[in-house]
Sequence to fold (722 residues):
Amino acid sequence: MISTQKYIDTQKFIRIKQRRTKLILFACLIAFIIISLRLIQIQVVHSTDLQSEAQSQYKLPSTIPANRGNIYDCNGNILASSAMVIKVAADCSIMTNESKNAIAKKLAELTNIHPREYLKKLNNTKRYVCLESEIHPSYKNFLQENKPHGVLIEEVSKRLYHSGNIAAQILGGMHYDNYGKGGVESYFNSQLSGKDGSIVKYRDGSRRIQPVLDFPKIDPQNGNSIYLTIDLTYQSIVEEELRKGAEKFQADGAIVVMLKPSSGEVLAIAQYPNFDPSHSSKTDLAKQRIKALTDTYEPGSMFKLVAAAAALELDLVKPEQKFNAENGRYVYPAGKKGIIITDTHPYDVLTFKEAMEVSSNIVFAKIAKIVGTEAFYSQARNLGFGNSTNIELPGEAKGFLKKPNQWSGTTLQAMSRGYEVGATPIQIAAAYAALANNGILMKPYILKQIQNENGDSVASTQPTILRRVFSEKTASQLLQMFTSVVEGERGTAKLAIVNGLRIAGKTGTARKIVDGKYSQKNHLASFIGFFPIENPQVVCLVMLDNPKTGGYTGGTTSTVIFKAIAERISITKSSFNRNGKINEDKLFEASDYQIVPDVCGMQPNNAVRMLEKSGFSASLVGNGISVLNQDPKPGTLAAKGAEIKLMFVKTNYADENGFYVVPNVVGLPLRRAVNRLSLEGFESTAYGNGIVVCQSPEAEKSASRKTVVSLICEDRKVAGKL
Fold:
């Protein structure tokens, strides 16, 4: 019985063992299937995604930024370039006090700013705080050495405008993302920006960064350089005289357009008020647009060119033909009651030529009626009005020129004196350039050439003849008429006369529309002239928006500015022949002089390098992180090799009460004063414009950084007398 029982127990044990073995094998089979399916899912189904995720944990792809191309004037003077600078930022939320002190001390060694100033920025919980944005690249290794955890050091590109505010609207400025936001920077952004390169590195187990040989380095393709037709000497003179004139006549704004009539090259475009392309913001958008292209104006008597050209070209009126000037008041037959037209001065009888000389509205209304609707419209269209010039700048308007079927009974007489028509300053300048070019209309252009980084020409612009707008005979007759406007005994532009330089041109005065009506107080005062008349090389349009002193007409305001510009240009450039007596004290050769670049706000070594590259020497006054002021001023002409004095911001430490010394800004231009106070940590508020004549608190007084410094400013001319 015992042996039988043992046998039964043994059999039972074997069966249990077999069942367990099968269960284990089955479980292993299931596990194998699950693992196999998971492997298939990982290695086949999701392999691409998982490989990308794995690579992202050790691969460190980075962009190699392309250098933005430079911008030059027609003579090769550099207007804009880019430089690499070091930006130092920090993630305050992960930094220890020891790390904060370490980076503050390290930066203080470079900038001479007290470490406590950096600690103020670091003592918060922000994830990103910019500590310095413009450190010279040569200090990169110094900053990288023993870099505290939480500190970010990166190379960024900074755009430099070497002549300060000169040609600001033309250049346009840059967005924070290195994209042009106006002017040439925007229009040619694809050419200037180039194409970024790339490089891939990996992080090993010890978090060391190593290059990856499997991924080739792609070198960046640097941007092309742009050469403009702008002449920096002309541009500087124009901007300086325009500012002086606009301030003198208290105008709301002002514009100058200067062309070379034989080719259509833009020599200068300027406007007032100006802006700083390096630090522009949304608050000065109106100053940033190029009003010579974007804004449309009723041109006033400058539009009398159209009626005069049509009348002479069709041989409908002779220059010596006489007209009844109606003693200054005339009822033009239109509508039931007619339209009353008046002249500034009453005249009895005037010839066609004399009517141009004195700018008679009455006579030109009669001449336009002789010309007729179709011929008048055709001549205006032929001169380019109503069509954009397609110049290489953004935002150009077409203006407006109504078709004859849209005209009312008053349109013809209104257009004869520059109303019921809209023109941009560039259109007006181009039309008069056709007159100066013996009747041939040229396409205005500002792009001279595009070069790649090797100096090879990628594209260039050649003068383009659009059409002949009137015959040589008509051009000769018109030239005599417009010369009499300046030189004639009763000419409206006598204030534009320059000794020894013959000038032809036309004044214009137009009432502005205010609240839907033509205002008696708001005017657009203009003058356009070209010189020398023997061989015209420059056409210059000056427009003042609502001058409030010195008269409101173009003949009493814009001509004064034109004269100042023409006189300086004719003295500066040896290509002008002047037969009159010249002030020898003003005579110099342009080749001996150079435009002083703007180095304010730059670090000392960068400022000195830029000045030396421009042909100047530099002397340093004081110590500090950046240039506060310079003498001579940026944008002015100075002899090559001249010494430029650079004044620096002094380090300003707090006293035992936490107060700081208020710097002296009396005598500085408002913008420089505000920048100086800002660098010292003070806010400011200004009353008036121009030169700072008084400040509160006074200089050298101690004050809290929360103190707002009040600045009282006066016009430069007035301030000079105080």
